[in-house]
Each structure stands twice: as C-alpha cells, then as structure tokens.
Amino acid sequence: MDEAEAKRRLVDDKVDRISNLPESSLCKILLNLPTKVVVKTSLLSSSWRNLWKCVPRLDLASSHHFKENHSIFVTFVDRFLGFNSDFCLESFKLRYGDEKRERDFHLLIRWFNTVFKLNVKHVDFTDCSSRRGAFLIPQTIYTCEKLVSLKLCMVTMPCLKFVSLPLLRSIILALVKFVDNSDLETLISGCVSLELQVSY
Fold first, then answer.
1. How far apart are CA 31 and CA 52, in angstroms?
2. Strands lying side by side in the sheet with 91-96
3. DSSP secondary structure letters along 88-146
4. pLDDT score at 26
5. Given this model, what pLDDT does residue 139 score?
6. Cα 158 from Cα 177, distance rounded (Å)
7. What is the mean pLDDT of each run of 10 residues along the chain (200 residues)?
8. Which stretches within the chain are classed as H helix?
9. Cβ distance 120 to 147 under 8 Å?
C-alpha cells in the first residue's frame, strides 16, 4: 500500500458515517434509547442539537426524575410533547411520583390527553406514589384509535361508556381498579385486535 492510499484510508476512517445518515434513519436508531440518552446526543455536534426533538418516544421510566428539579422536568415534558404536536407519538413510558411528593393530577391528565391526541401507539404508565389507585386515567384512553399496546399499573380506569381501540393488541393491567365491575369485560370485548397470550 502506497502512502497516498494509506492517507485516504485514514481520512475514510475518521468520517462520521452515522451523522451522514438521513434524519429519518437517525430518529429510528434513537427510538431504541431512553429519552435521557437521546437528549444527551444533542451535545455531539451542531447537526445533532435539535434531533432529539424529532424522536417520537418519551421514556421516563425512572421515578428519580421527580425527586430533584421537578419544575424543570415538567417543563421538559411539556416542551417535548409540544415539539411532537405534528407527529404520531410512538411511545410514552412514565413512572410518576414518590411517597414524599403529592401528585399533580391536573398535570398528569394534561399529559395523557396530549399523548392520546398525538395518536400514541404504546403506553406504559405506573403510579409510584403511596396512594395507589388514586389517579383516574382520562376517559380519552378509550378512544385512542392508534394504540397498539397498553400497560398500566396502580391506577383507576374511568367509567366506560364507549370503546374504540381497533389496533390494540396487548393489555397488561397490574393492580388496576375499575369503577364498575363489568367495565373490564366491556373493554376487552371492544378490542377487536386483542391477542391472547398465555405464560407459564
């Protein structure tokens, strides 16, 4: 190998091939990372600075986000949902609250209503506060027509009047209360795409 060829290969090795990918491909890659990591990619270069805003996935599964800088965290979530207001939200994952802080039900209701309006596909929510089951999920959950999977833990479901969840294939409900005992049966019968999974 001559010197010119060696220099060319050295330059090729230093090329940032990932940053040269189309924005849509980069967003698909970032979809597989937690939101905290995705936001950190904005420090990589100027071309990555605003890319995290286009990733349609909000993964805030660790409740420690709420223990410090609560107002900053709330502002971040509001801004993120605002950035994605023109898109279909792929996933919303949240562990909310702790035993020391009172929950802001109005805040949660606002976030859920926004997420459902964004035609979210996957929802995973756990109420981590001491008063388990006190949070009543908004009624709009029953008409989220793009929803594919739903995982809820330690919440109360609203009174069921109408169900339109044509794409919902997976439901996981842990320590979930229903206002009316017949609502669970009505919910399941209204999910025409539901897939039965049996685990041993």
1. 10
2. 57-60, 91-96, 122-127, 149-153, 170-174
3. ---EEEEEE--SSS---HHHHHHHHHHHHHTT-SEEEEEE-SSSTT--B--GGGGG-TT
4. 76
5. 92
6. 9
7. 58 61 74 77 74 80 62 86 80 79 81 93 88 84 94 92 92 91 88 75
8. 3-14, 23-30, 35-40, 70-83, 105-117, 183-189
9. yes
Nearest-angstrom CA–CA distance, 57 and 102: 26
Cα–Cα distance for residue pair 117/171, rounded to 1 Å:
20
Token pair for 125: 């929510």
Provide the whole-model pTM. 0.79
| Paired tokens of 35 | 């939101």
How far, CA to CA in Å, does 73 sit from each of 10, 140, 144?
Answer: 43, 24, 26
